[in-house]
Amino acid sequence: NAGVMQNPRHLVRRRGQEARLRCSPMKGHSHVYWYRQLPEEGLKFMVYLQKENIIDESGMPKERFSAEFPKEGPSILRIQQVVRGDSAAYFCASSSRDETNYGYTFGSGTRLTVV
Amino acid sequence: RKEVEQDPGPFNVPEGATVAFNCTYSNSASQSFFWYRQDCRKEPKLLMSVYSSGNEDGRFTAQLNRASQYISLLIRDSKLSDSATYLCVVSYSNYQLIWGAGTKLIIKP
Q1: Residues in chain B within 8 Å Cβ distance of A98
Q2: B interface toward A at CB cutoff 8 Å?
Q3: Tens-digit pLDDT profile for chain A (115 aa)?
Q4: Are A56 and B99 in contact (CB < 8 Å)?
């Protein structure tokens, strides 16, 4: 499967623990986008990264959330000290360039449940 | 006011019927428009882009009205497999998508 790969598919964390979500872009893609979907809502933009650079993190909560896309390996979305309100589906998409004219292909998502 | 607004539904439609959804957006600078489909607990999948001249893909027709800032999706001869949530998406930057909350469609046999 050469698509966008996300893992884990499901993640359960207790309040106060850390959550690490991984996204491997499609082969040849160097742009990664993270979105969050709360129940019964549309997706909300979180962050746009290129290899080793954060281009736009305007959708990221100011505290506890961070993202990286290292030179080697997957992009990581990290949530520290999780709270119940962090429970959501987190989707990532990738592209070879920063244009939306053709839409995006998303990974299957990580469903985070905070108990 | 939400940037992209959709009727949440659900729309309960008999198989074979025609169904239409509308979506309005608030930013007149929006440049790109899409309809995505999302099945329960799955990722959204691109259904079609929406062009100013309108476009058709099989049983699906999308229209864009820039003056009134709304987008429509028409599904003809609906199938049971069309049951899903349909998400209206706009973009006014090179990379950031703005999503509606979706319209739920249920096709009944």
Answers
A1: 94-95
A2: 4, 8, 32, 34, 36, 41-46, 49, 87, 89, 91, 93-102
A3: 579 999 999 999 999 999 999 999 998 888 999 999 998 889 999 999 999 999 999 999 999 999 999 999 999 999 999 999 999 999 999 988 766 667 788 999 999 999 9
A4: no
